[in-house]
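Progress narrative, work stream C.
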Amino acid sequence: MHQYPYVIAALVLFATSAMAQPVPAESCEKIRTQIRGQIGILAKADTDLLQKLSARSDCRFTAQEVYRAAYGDKPMPKNEPRPRHSGHDHDDD
């Protein structure tokens, strides 16, 4: 009779640990399909899709994929180097 509390405790512990398991994340390929499905220029960033990307760092999304997930077909900004001097020369004292 005195073993029932141990059995009940074990069952409760098993049930709570089973319920605490996270829902399996979407596959990398399924997320990439969603990224390719971003058509047109989005008015605001798709934060839901960006959260999926950040949750799956193992997928190693490229910068282009992340940008497209956020903004759709909007062209990426040009990566032009900034001028070293903005007209102020501090060596002419």
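Work stream C, second folded protein:
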Amino acid sequence: MKFVQFSLIVSLILLLVACEKPSVELTTVSFVNKDKGSGNFDRMIEICFTKPLTSDYYHQVTIITHQSYKLQGGNVLRPMASDPDNKCQTRNLYNYINRSSPIGARDMIKDYMTPGNINQLLIKVYAQKPEGKELPLDERLYKNL
């Protein structure tokens, strides 16, 4: 009986280790403008890693401007099928607007979330969407972007 329990425990541990996602490491975050005239892609951030993503991850971003405007949000980062060797992911700041965003968040992003006006940007990357107090795989604080 003890051998069966031991075998079951070892199997579960091996299964958990095999399912673990590769670690990720952030390198840079920068503001880019990918707009072609629509006005919808003028506020983008480019999140770069040491190597291209090979699995889905969840990230949270907190951006604070020099005027103390704050934007918080998060979503899934997926490997890019169209460019699997690209180490960077581009995200639209407008997609970080959610229920807890301040009224007029779209105008706030348009007017204040510009290159040179960002006091701090905190980014956290998780293996999956955090449910409680999980620790991120990587987190970085960038200043004066």
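DSSP finds two helices and seven strands in the chain. No further action is required on this item.
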